[in-house]
């Protein structure tokens, strides 16, 4: 299959092999050359042997063939005439047109393979297009500040009332009775405290991992937030028939084996876990109202702790952090696009609740029509997303994942880039709706005027269709874009396009499957570093090698060691 | 299973019909009495929102027993 004119630049460094019968005298163009991506397969099948002196594609374009070549013949120096023809002239025209367009920052690249006595002449009138030396240095502007007061908890106990004192969190004994009757769908609630060394117990499937945080001042993303450290709530559940509330697999079993402790979305190794286990009405596990009711009841329980946490002063905090969101003017604007589930039922997220990581007051992305919603990075790290989604446990991004999202943390801290926002876009069920949402995302990104984007998605399945479309919508606007997803073997991408050349794999399972271990295949700091390196490479015009036809974890290891070395 | 090259497994086209539908999943009955399958909606690729009676198709390989 011949190379298309659009793709030719990607393949300049690849070996030149004619794809079909090409007659003597032909001036070689992309239409005469075989797509380099299939050459390894042809070689392994014994259909093609590449001699050591085979020319690169950029060396043969525009040159005249001396002999008629049979299909799949590698082009070597003896087969082409030395004289350069139209290609060189075309490049000259390109240079002039580059000056004549408004893209003053686009580079002029002059490559000379071999030659002597070469003279360049540039008309002085063109010098006006070079940037002025005395550029005004632009200053950074602080957009918003969030003060995060952390209160270390070393022990959780039962008492007559809720209190937080000297590192001990007291929970009210009869709290279960108070919250059991909040929603008729929830039939039973039980709460227990699990110490770090007592995790070898049975658990129902984990719906969510929720930090305990509350606003003391201001809205989410700014002001003051109090947060408990060393303790986290997990929500688990079944229906009345004993069916786990799950969809793409469930993670019931021995707690210590079913959680990848230390992942951004999981409890940490030494965290005390408060487990809220619910039983919901039979057969509502796969309906929207079932899991939502479970999350709501859990939120009412957490709210009671929040009310006490609100009263804690700064002097009692074990540490105080300031999250300063800065507009780094003058540096390339970039955006993170997070595709979240929006197929309905439990595939939903609550955006911007009243309290950090809360439920009440937030809007479900399904109700918003799954259209893109822009959040600031401070809002994301202040618990603006409550994850309802029950995708397979290994790829599930929990509420805790968002409050310490590694990609957001990394990009906002990077001094080379200016992270302008995080766009959340839902993934609806039908392709018609997916297209609508994707096109809106494209328009939004165009209006944001960014120079780079990273698109991530959780889970796998039909959401990979709109994941690919989002990347296409951004890529076709000339914006460098990097994709981040779990794929492995089980979640192989089902569609693709030419803009999906920089992809980051989140799989960490040996077999490349949804392992039913909570958060095993979710985005971690090391994945974020690879994604950032890929984005910078793409933005600076660097080359990204094409993938192998088969999934190979060695590629990830190699990329990771490269990135870590830098 | 791990010894088999998953990329060269024989895959067979199987057709069927959606016989039940909930907010989160669909039940598919395969033609020729090949059985039934319940899958999450996210495994279903569709132009419009699915309905009972919609015809579907999928490719699948044979089922292998891993542990006995």
TrEMBL record, chain A:
The encoding gene is prdA
Q: What GO MF terms are annotated? A: D-proline reductase activity
EC id: 1.21.4.1
Indicate what this protein is called per its UniProt record. D-proline reductase (Dithiol) proprotein PrdA
EC category name: oxidoreductase
Q: Does the keyword Oxidoreductase apply?
A: yes
Q: Name one Pfam family in it.
A: Gly_reductase
Question: What's the source species for this entry?
Answer: Caldicellulosiruptor changbaiensis
Its lineage reads: Bacteria, Bacillati, Bacillota, Bacillota incertae sedis, Caldicellulosiruptorales
Name the InterPro entries for this protein. D_pro_red_PrdA (IPR031002), Gly_reductase_pB_sua/b (IPR015417)
TrEMBL record, chain B:
**At the top level of its lineage, which domain of life is listed?**
Bacteria
Check the record and name the InterPro entries matching this protein: CBO2463_dom
**Protein name (record):** DUF3006 domain-containing protein
**Which species is the source of this protein?**
Caldicellulosiruptor changbaiensis
Q: What is the lineage of its organism?
A: Bacteria, Bacillati, Bacillota, Bacillota incertae sedis, Caldicellulosiruptorales
């Amino acid at each position: 299959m011949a190379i298309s004119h659009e793709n030719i630049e990607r393949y300049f460094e690849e070996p030149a092999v004619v794809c079909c019968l090409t007659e003597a005298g032909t001036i070689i163009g992309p239409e005469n050359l075989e797509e380099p991506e299939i050459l390894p397969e042809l070689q392994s099948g014994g259909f093609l042997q590449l001699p050591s002196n085979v020319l690169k594609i950029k060396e043969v374009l525009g040159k005249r063939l001396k002999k008629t070549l049979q299909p799949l013949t590698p082009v070597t120096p003896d087969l082409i005439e030395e004289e350069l023809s139209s290609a060189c002239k075309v490049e000259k025209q390109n240079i002039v047109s580059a000056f004549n367009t408004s893209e003053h920052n686009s580079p002029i690249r002059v490559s000379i393979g071999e030659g002597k006595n070469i003279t360049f002449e540039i008309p002085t009138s063109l010098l006006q297009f070079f940037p002025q030396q005395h550029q005004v240095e632009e200053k950074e502007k602080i957009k918003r500040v969030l003060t995060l007061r952390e209160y270390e908890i070393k022990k959780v106990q039962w008492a007559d009332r809720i209190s937080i004192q000297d590192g001990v969190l007291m929970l009210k004994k009869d709290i279960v009775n108070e919250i059991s009757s909040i929603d008729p769908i929830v039939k039973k609630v039980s709460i227990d405290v699990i110490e770090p060394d007592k995790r070898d117990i049975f658990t129902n499937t984990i719906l969510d991992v929720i930090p305990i945080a509350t606003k003391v001042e201001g809205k989410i993303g700014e002001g003051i937030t109090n947060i408990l450290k060393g303790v986290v709530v997990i929500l688990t559940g079944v229906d009345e028939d004993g069916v786990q509330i799950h969809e793409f697999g469930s993670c019931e079993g021995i707690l210590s084996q079913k959680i990848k402790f230390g992942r951004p979305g999981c409890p940490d190794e030494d965290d005390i876990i408060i487990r809220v286990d619910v039983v919901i009405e039979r057969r509502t596990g796969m309906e929207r109202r079932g899991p939502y009711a479970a999350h709501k009841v859990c939120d009412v329980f957490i709210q009671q702790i929040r009310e006490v946490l609100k009263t804690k002063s700064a002097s009692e905090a074990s540490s105080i952090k300031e999250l300063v969101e800065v507009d780094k003017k003058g540096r390339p604007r970039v955006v993170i696009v997070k595709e979240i589930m929006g197929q309905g039922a439990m595939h939903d997220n609550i955006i911007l609740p009243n309290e950090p990581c809360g439920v009440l007051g937030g809007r479900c992305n399904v109700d918003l029509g799954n259209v893109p919603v822009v959040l600031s990075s401070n809002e994301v790290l202040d618990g603006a997303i409550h994850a309802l989604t029950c995708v397979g446990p290994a790829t599930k991004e929990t509420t805790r994942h968002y409050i310490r999202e590694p990609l957001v943390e990394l990009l906002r801290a990077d001094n080379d880039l200016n992270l302008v926002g995080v766009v959340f876009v839902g993934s609806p069920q039908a392709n018609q709706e997916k297209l609508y949402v994707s096109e809106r995302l494209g328009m939004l990104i165009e209006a944001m005027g960014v120079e780079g984007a990273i698109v991530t998605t959780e889970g796998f399945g039909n959401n990979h269709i709109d994941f690919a479309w989002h990347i296409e919508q951004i890529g076709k606007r000339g914006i460098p874009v990097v994709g981040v997803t779990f794929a492995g073997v089980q979640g192989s991408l089902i569609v693709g396009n030419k803009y999906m050349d920089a992809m980051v794999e989140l799989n960490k399972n040996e077999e490349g499957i949804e392992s039913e271990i909570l958060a095993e295949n979710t985005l971690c700091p090391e994945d974020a570093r690879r994604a950032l390196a890929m984005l910078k490479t793409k933005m600076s015009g660097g080359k990204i090698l094409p993938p192998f036809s088969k999934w190979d974890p060695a590629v990830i290891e190699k990329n990771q060691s490269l990135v870590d070395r830098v | 299973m791990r010894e088999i090259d998953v990329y060269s497994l024989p895959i067979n086209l199987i057709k069927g019909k959606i016989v039940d539908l909930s907010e989160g999943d669909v039940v598919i009955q395969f033609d020729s009495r090949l059985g039934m399958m319940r899958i999450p909606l996210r495994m279903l690729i569709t132009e419009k929102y699915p309905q009972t009676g919609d015809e579907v198709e999928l490719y699948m390989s044979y089922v292998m027993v891993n542990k006995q």
